[in-house]
Design brief:
Elements: E1 10-11, E2 18-19, E3 33-35, E4 42-44, H1 64-78, H2 83-96, H3 104-113, H4 117-130, H5 138-147, H6 151-164, H7 172-181, H8 185-198, H9 203-212, H10 216-235, H11 246-255, H12 259-272, H13 280-289, H14 293-306, H15 311-320, H16 324-337, H17 345-354, H18 358-371, H19 379-388, H20 392-405, H21 410-419, H22 423-436, H23 444-453, H24 457-470, H25 478-487, H26 491-504, H27 512-521, H28 525-538, H29 546-555, H30 559-572, H31 580-589, H32 593-606, H33 611-620, H34 624-637, H35 642-651, H36 657-674
Antiparallel strand pairs: 1-2, 3-4
């Protein structure tokens, strides 16, 4: 007879025996319970669905089938009349995100029929998480915004529309109407954010809102959204998406008396940028008639964003206005436009000549600096300003403008250096030449003369900085710099002279004897470091300094000095072979692995003459880092190292297996490089 198990009895899936309800294992040893893969509770092994959570045990968590099942269950639960179950279903769909798009119709239906604000808000949150794929729900959300009085519900609906983005264009009229009628700041903010996300499709409705509304807060919000849409278009590479709003914004600027509204309109035009060129006359007129500095600044910021098309209007403002604030703001706008504002140079020069005070002078200099080489016409006016000014900041600003103008300003800067007695003027002119760099080579004779005649250490330092920036083209200055090194007692001046020679490079080889003399006089690590850096820049042409560098290695205990000397010897290269014994001795007596590394690098650059010292280091050292450094140097020496390396592998004992392996690796690399097998 067929036995029918009683409630609670368990059936073994292995042998078919029936066991009591409290039994966990069958007589055959098989388990009578299984653990749910979701809730982790135990239930009878012959059940395919969990007795507690109802999860099918053949559906793995996080699989596509699991997600589909969760979506289907959530859709089913949305039809349940219990608000708590509906809320949990919405929460589950929110957690699933965009792949739950199948649930959009059910969520839309829930929003239509539910009277529970919390449930509706949760449904909106689920649609928000689904994103653009929830576009089918846009009409329902738009209707919800129109009929609901619950600000939490409205706020959630707006957030959902924001995430749906451009596909929510059908909701624009509802959002615009919401901005008109709502008094709640957060609701308005969320509606504006939704319109920004919808993008260009919202522009016509916003334009209409600006034209028809009398509420300044509504107009301000509309302008903010237009600015956001304009920037949205620029970021997505589709151009100024709100350009069709320009006529409405221009009209708003002309008719409004409210400073906040005007500023918002200017901000919107600034966001639209070059496509708002139609607004230039209205903005210029606004600047002329307004007494409000913030409004003027906003209008100038809009003109700056519009760009070259705004230059004539800004020039006219500069020429006609007597208001320093207006002039300064116009200059700031031209500064932002940059080289394209070269048309304004004559007006800016005229401003300098009229001497309108420190604020205007500084603004003009900054503008000429931004225009750059195209402002060469302003050079005489800037030089005249420097000559007649007693204020250091004016001189610095004018010299900075000359620096930006570039090579065209060099003759004027040279003339300033030769004629002026003011150290501030001379120093600033030198700083400008430094900024111009190699193109200022014409100034070298004047800088040389300045070094020879000046007693002011600051001026001499500035001249050295300029020569360094000019570089190899300043080789004519080497004798003067050598003389400066020999006669000066000021360490800072000596350092700057070395700095200049460093910039000149190999062409400064004439300075090597003076640099060697500096090393012998032992001026301290600051000067020694500078001399070594200079010898490094001169390179192989500094071979005359090798004995002095070798002697410095022998007597110095300062690791930084040793590092600088090793770097110089490395740059001199094979011509530094005389330093090999000193470097070998340094390696023998030093316990600092970094010092040994630097010495090995120098020996590697010196070449074949350094091979015996490196081989000796490998023989006696047990430090693998030191051995690696020596091997790297031998690898750099290349073929010339092979005759010494080959016997070394036979000489080492079997205990030196790591050394042997590293040496063999170097030998193989050199042979492979040259095709030797």
């Amino acid at each position: 007879m067929l036995y029918i198990p009683l409630p609670g009895e368990k059936v073994c899936v292995n042998c078919g025996r029936v066991a009591q309800r409290d039994a966990r294992f069958c007589q055959c040893g098989a388990s009578l319970v299984r653990t749910c893969i979701v809730c982790l509770k135990e239930f009878p092994v012959d059940h395919d669905i969990c007795d507690y959570c109802g999860w099918p045990q053949d559906v793995e968590p996080s699989s596509e089938a699991e997600i589909k099942l969760r979506v289907q269950r959530a859709i089913s639960d949305l039809s349940n009349p219990d608000p708590e179950i509906q809320k949990k279903a919405c929460e589950a769909l929110k957690g699933i995100g965009p792949v739950a798009s199948e649930a959009v119709p059910a969520l839309a239906d829930l929003i239509r029929r539910s009277e529970d604000g919390v449930v509706i808000a949760w449904a909106c949150e689920a649609l928000r998480a689904i994103g653009p794929a929830a576009s089918e729900a846009v009409p329902v959300l738009a209707d919800l915004i129109r009929r609901s009085e619950d600000k939490e519900v409205i706020w959630s609906a707006c957030e959902a529309l924001e995430e749906i983005g451009p596909a929510a264009s059908e909701a624009v009229p509802a959002l615009v109407d919401l901005i008109r009628r709502s008094k709640d700041r957060w609701v308005i903010e969320s509606a504006c954010a939704a319109l920004k996300a919808i993008g260009p499709a919202a522009v016509p409705a916003l334009v209409d809102l600006i034209r028809r509304s009398e509420d300044k807060e509504v107009i301000k919000r509309a302008c903010e959204v237009l600015r956001g849409i304009a920037l949205w278009g620029i970021l997505r590479g589709i151009g100024p998406a709100a350009s069709e709003a320009v006529p409405a914004l221009v009209d708003l600027i002309r008719r409004s008396e409210d400073r906040e509204v005007i500023k918002s309109a200017c901000d919107a035009l600034e966001g639209i940028g070059p496509a708002a060129s139609e607004a230039v006359p209205a903005l210029a007129e606004l600047i002329r008639r307004s007494k409000d500095r913030e409004v003027i600044w906003s209008a100038c910021a809009a003109l700056k964003a519009i760009g070259p098309a705004a230059v004539p209007a800004l020039v006219d403002l500069i020429r006609r206005s007597e208001d320093l604030g207006v002039i300064g703001s116009a200059c700031a706008a031209l500064e932002g436009i940059g080289p394209a504002a070269s048309e304004a140079v004559p007006a800016l020069v005229d401003l300098l000549k009229r001497n309108k005070g420190w604020y205007v002078i500084d603004s003009v200099c900054e503008t000429l600096k931004a225009i750059g080489p195209a402002a060469s016409e302003a050079v005489p006016a800037l030089v005249d300003l420097i000559r007649r000014s007693k204020h250091s900041w004016v001189i610095e600003s004018a010299c900075a403008a000359l620096e930006a103008i570039g090579p065209a300003a060099v003759p004027a800067l040279v003339d300033l250096i030769r004629r002026s007695e003011d150290s501030g003027v001379i120093g600033s002119a030198c700083a400008a030449l430094e900024g111009i760099g190699p193109a200022a080579s014409e100034a070298v004779p004047a800088l040389v003369d300045l070094i020879r005649r000046s007693k002011d250490s600051w001026v001499i330092e500035k001249a050295c900085d300029a020569l360094k920036a000019i570089g190899p083209a300043a080789s004519e200055a080497v004798p003067a710099l050598v003389d400066l090194i020999r006669r000066s007692k000021d360490e800072e001046v000596i350092w700057r002279a070395c700095y200049a020679l460093r910039g000149i490079g190999p062409a400064a080889s004439e300075a090597v004897p003076a640099l060697v003399d500096l090393l012998k006089r032992n001026k301290g690590w600051y000067v020694i470091d500078s001399v070594c850096e200079t010898l490094k820049a001169i390179g192989p042409a500094a071979s005359e300094a090798v004995p002095a560098l070798a002697e410095l290695i022998r007597r110095s205990k300062d690791s930084w000095v040793i590092w600088s000397v090793c770097a110089a010897l490395r740059a001199i290269g094979p011509a530094a072979s005389e330093a090999v014994p000193a470097l070998a001795d340094l390696i023998r007596r030093s316990e600092d692995r970094w010092v040994i590394k630097w010495a090995c690098a120098a020996l590697g650059a010196i070449g074949p003459a350094a091979v015996p010292a490196l081989v000796d280091l490998i023989r006696r050292s047990e430090d693998m880092e030191v051995i690696n450094s020596a091997c790297a140097a031998l690898e750099a020496i290349d073929l010339a190292a092979l005759p010494e390396l080959n016997p070394l592998t036979g000489w080492l004992s079997p205990l030196d297996k790591y050394k042997k392996a590293r040496i063999k690796e170097v030998i193989e690399k050199i042979k492979r490089k040259h095709g030797i097998w």
